[in-house]
Amino acid sequence: MKYGESFKFNITQVIGLTNDDVVSKEFRPYKQIIERLNRTFKASYRVKCGYDNFDGANYNLALWVAYYNFLRPHSINNFKVLNSVEVLESADTMPDKWLLLIYLGQKTILNLQNKVAEG
User: Fold this and answer.
1) Which of 1, 70, 101, 115 is the most exposed place for a label (fewest CB within 10 A)?
2) 98 contacts 105 by C-beta, under 8 angstroms
3) Domain around 104
4) How many alpha carbons fall within 13 Å on the CB side of residue 119?
5) 66 touches 47 (CB < 8 A)
6) Dihedral of CA 108/45/82/78: which sign?
7) How many CB atoms sit inside 10 A of residue 35's CB?
8) Residue 6 domain-assigned?
9) Torsion of CA 102, 106, 109, 113, to 10 degrees
10) What are the two backbone dihedrals, phi and then psi, of residue 96, each rounded to the nearest 5 degrees?
């Protein structure tokens, strides 16, 4: 594997649909949250062709996460976005919001690069 030992996490498996054991009782709410997120992702993720490398898939996923967290209204939050950014609220259309979000991302990357260069 490319990432080796630096990319590890613990997996807790919740089996079945009922809480028949201690592990299921403790972790079922997390499983339900993850499954709901997976369904939402699959419903809105439309790839017409595969990717020839991980970068394309990673970029697409990063854009979806940005949409999900900063642009998509959520019923649990009274149909408001999860993470409100004042600059984005001033945009009237979704394309304008995307342009501002991309601009903010580029600005953040440049600031981080300048900090590293200054050392």
Assistant:
1) 1
2) no
3) 65-119
4) 0
5) no
6) positive
7) 11
8) no
9) 170
10) -65, -40
> Number of structural domains, the chain?
1
Give counts: helices (H), strands (E), the chain: 4, 0
Residue 23 burial (CB count, 10 A): 13
88 and 101 Cβ atoms separated by less than 8 Å = yes
Q: What is the pLDDT of residue 2?
A: 63
DSSP bridge partners of 74: 80
| pTM summary value | 0.64
Is residue 109 a part of any domain in this protein?
Answer: yes
Structure tokens at 114: 């300048």
Cα distance between residue 14 and residue 22, in whole Å: 10
**Residue 117 belongs to some domain of the structure:** yes
Q: Whole-angstrom Cα distance, residue 16 to residue 25?
A: 11
Q: Please state, in angstroms and rounded to a whole number, the distance separating the CA atoms of residues 108 and 119.
A: 17
Identify which has the larger pLDDT, 77 or 2: 77
Tokens 């997996």 sit on residue: 11
Residue 112: inside a domain: yes
